[in-house]
Amino acid sequence: MTDTPPTYFRRGLGLKDEVLPVLESEYGSALVGIIRENDYRLEAGRLRLRLAQSFGFCYGVDRAVEYAYQTRTKFPDKTIFLIGEIIHNPFVNRQLSDRDIRFLYPDADGGFDLGPITSDDVAILPAFGVPLEAFETLREVGCVVVDTTCGSVLNVWKRVESYARDGFTAVVHGKHYHEETRATASQVRRYPGGKYLVVRNMSETELLCDVIRGDMAPEVFKERFLDRASAGFDPARDLVRIGVANQTTMLANESLAIAARVGEELVDRYGGDEIDQHFRSFDTICSATQDRQDAIVDMMEEPPDLMVVIGGYNSSNTNHLAHLCAESTRTYHIEDASCIDPAKGTISHKVIGEERIASETGWLPDDEVTIGLTAGASTPDSKIGETAARILETAGYDAAETLNG
Question: What residue ranges do the domains of the chain occupy?
Answer without folding.
Answer: 16-58+288-403, 60-148, 152-285
